[in-house]
Automatic annotation (TrEMBL):
This is Thymidylate kinase. It comes from Bifidobacterium dolichotidis. Keywords: ATP-binding, Kinase, Nucleotide biosynthesis, Nucleotide-binding, Transferase. The lineage of its organism: Bacteria, Bacillati, Actinomycetota, Actinomycetes, Bifidobacteriales. Coiled coil: none annotated. It catalyses: dTMP + ATP = dTDP + ADP. GO terms for cellular component: cytosol. Belongs to the thymidylate kinase family.
Length: 205
């Protein structure tokens, strides 16, 4: 099973991934935890560039940014995600295709369809079985962040608002895959809602 966690910065994705990992491992499942960008050695190099910027300080063109994310994703699926799924592991991913659609399509205001089509081509149409969107008001995003802001985190409130709305729009368009959860709730309550959905899905199957 391939499960992704999405949402704007500070929504609690990494926390929820770790909590679900522990629960599934306690049930005897092999769990592979990964993230984008940076799930492979190539991805780590691309993450530094994407979040830190070019070495000469030049702005990264929005189209170049989208292509770099797609390159990271292609390697990620080929090297890590697909092999893990093929051997029966559960893959938990902190961000995936929908982040590109939301951040480059919504935040950067590129064509959401083109961004999605690019990632689908790069991954051989690999999409998660379930995507949890941790929904957080954009105004609360920066208050939750610690440490220096990266390129995405420093893009401003309007950027975060467009990105959040893009996630919600995708969830409305694909209700069979997306589950929107209130990220303002305590982390343990969000984790319980995640488990309830997965248990219900397993019962249906």
């Amino acid at each position: 099973m391939f499960i992704s966690f999405e949402g704007i910065d500070g929504a609690g994705k990494t926390t929820q991934v770790a909590m679900l990992q522990q629960t599934l491992q306690d049930r005897g499942r092999e769990v592979v935890v990964t993230r984008e960008p940076g799930g492979t050695a190539l991805g780590v190099d691309l993450r530094k560039l994407l979040l830190g910027g070019a070495s000469d300080g030049a702005a990264i063109d929005a189209h170049a940014e989208a292509l770099l994310f797609a390159a990271d994703r292609a390697q990620h699926v080929a090297q890590l995600i697909r092999p893990a799924l093929d051997r029966g592991a559960v893959v938990l991913c902190d961000r995936y295709i929908d982040s590109s659609v939301a951040y480059q399509g919504g935040g950067r205001e590129l064509s959401a369809k083109e961004i999605r089509d690019l990632s689908m081509w790069a991954t051989g149409n690999m999409v998660p079985d379930v995507t949890f969107v941790l929904d957080l008001p954009a105004e609360q995003s920066h208050a939750r962040l610690t440490g220096p802001e990266d390129r995405m985190e420093s893009a401003g409130l309007a950027f975060a608002q467009r990105t959040r709305q893009a996630f919600l729009d995708m969830a409305a368009d694909e209700p069979e895959r997306f589950v929107v959860l209130d990220a303002t709730l305590p982390a343990d309550q969000v984790a319980q809602l995640v488990l309830e959905h997965l248990n219900s899905r397993a019962a249906r199957n």
